[in-house]
Amino acid sequence: MRGLASTSFVLILTAFAVSQSQPQLNLMPMPASVQPGAGQLAITQSFSVAVTGSHDASLDREVQRFQTRLSRQTGIPFRPKAGSAPTLQIHADHGRAAIQKLGDDESYELIVADSGAKLTASTSLGALRGLQTFLQLVEITPTGFAVPSVTVKDQPRFPWRGLLIDVSRHFIPIDVLKRNLDGMAAVKMNVLHWHVSDDQGFRVESKQFPKLTAMGSDGLFYTQGEIRDFIAYAHDRGIRVIPEFDIPGHSRSWFLGYPELSSGSGPYTLEGGGPGPYIDPIMDPTRESTYKFLEKFIAEMAKLFPDVYFHIGGDEVDGKQWDANPQIQTFIHAHGMKNNQDIQAYFNQRLQKILAKNHKTMVGWDEILHPDLPKAIVVQSWRGQQSLAAAAKRGYSGLLSSGYYLDLMWPAARHYAVDPMTITTTDAAAALTPEEKSRILGGESCQWAEWVTPENIDSHIWPRNAVIAERLWSPQNVTDVASMSTRLNAVSLDLEFLGLTHRSARMHMLHRMAGNADITPLRALADVVEPVKDYNRWSDSKGPIDFHAPLTRMIDAVYPESDAARHFGDLVQAFAQSGYKDQAAEAQIRASLTAWRDNDARLHPLLDQSYLLQEDVPVSQNLSALGAAGLQALDYLDKAQPAPDLWRTQQLALIEQAKKPIADLLLMVASPVQQLVEASAAQHN
Q1: DSSP characters for 264-313?
Q2: Considering the entire predicted model, what is its pTM?
Q3: pLDDT of 249-260, one tens digit each?
Q4: So which residues are the catalytic ones?
Q5: What per-residue string of b and e applies to 263-283 under the rule 16 or more CB within 10 Å gives b?
Q6: Are the C-beta atoms of 432 and 423 separated by less than 8 Å?
Q7: How far is 428 from 656, CA to CA, in rounded Å?
């Protein structure tokens, strides 16, 4: 696969050179090689598909889904003519194994001409990936729907391209997870990392230990039948499912039903950690009964989850319970251990042997890295690329998640800039060798569930997740942010057609806040705000998070990234680069500023009548003030008169106030308005 990838770098340079004179193809991830041709293939009612070569059931089902989606995408009911040549011919040399493996061949070639299209692949899995590319190529033209003539030769850069979805903090139903699998398949991701247990909930039925869900789930969990169906659904779409049972920390939900596993005395609840000062509960690694429990549990889960990889968490182990437990301290000293890291390594050694006995390979977060563990394990880095490089240098395979945390609410471009192979070290001699680089298997985006529900989880994952998918699939030199943004908008619409609700859910949530009122002015405000970034929402929380509280505030509805604010900022930049002479840009800027200035008067009655919106009153007022300040700045610029110093000082103070988070929201147009104000004051007669 890496040999093919190196060849593709040469091909893609040629393809990009050709494409400079061609309309941009809205493909994401961008294939390894794209060579535009002349003409287009019309999509008509006679569209048909034929499959030759290996003819396994999963490919047949994918072809049926493909035709259904293409019909829905175009609105065309297909009625192929008997005896006519197929519009799309698919040939796969080999079928797929019952259990998908790391590194299975996903390469394909797609050739589209005006007379027909041909998709060839070594395996039916590659054919699945090629069908997604075909769907993204479909476009509306003056004469109907069509696919442009093109030759695509494609294969992934990394074999592991995953998305973590946490279902422990807020339970996410199977139907919501399935539509996210559909989204993953559309952008060629191939691993769902299912974080199914944590302090706040244990979500997988165990017949061996039924109290795990009876007492640790609030009644919200997946039955084993549902899990088998879900894994089959994922396999049909070329996606592996890897469970994560986070131990020895992040494990409070285990102890409600089985307190003997804990290093402390409890009692425990899903909301907190017992009487007295809060201490994170941890499993007791010194009792043989702990390992007997885990042997039975893992044997059961190993049969339920067929993938060879099994994630054990291992992160953020708070050692306070170990420190406070005399028996554990005696064990540490008796075994010559120096610290809590050593006893966690002991626990992981025992756990790894149990996994190996069940033919599973251990995956864990950074903290499991320890020389006493075999090189077969996989280390997932959440702390940064330094730890990923350290693991690779010590002979361990690794995954990057640092930089791909979707719950941090970063803009797409920031995620897009993170690459598993862009590793800097303080030691100039520590650059990775080719062999060490080969140990970096890929990466995973992460959606932790402290602030998501089934209603808004799609908008927290999509469409930004598509740019991470591109980073992990496409050649490393595919980095143009402007191209990415354009293609992302198109892919976002496709994903909504597919069944995801990342765009439509916001409308429903805004209507809830507004009641029967017109939401137009509320949308205008929502369009230019973003949630606070990183974990600042945690900082503003008073006490522990109530995971049963409704997520119905404006922050829960707005998009992680404001397209309107980004567009406004681009307009201001273009206006500045013209020396503030571009009349077309100014007209658009003035129209936006006028709308924002006047929006508060339209929105204010609604804000007053809805208790869900009352905290947003100052945000609306600040937007109106920014609109007024920006308009006055434009007037000064038009007259070529420097703004008075007092006015400038007053407006900059207002802008600084508007930049501060209110109701956990950031007003994203404040900085471009500041640029206008400063420019108006800096000009000279």
Answers
A1: S-----SS---SSS-----B-TT-HHHHHHHHHHHHHHHHH--SSEEE--
A2: 0.94
A3: 999 999 999 999
A4: 316
A5: bbeeebebeebbeeeebbbbb
A6: yes
A7: 42
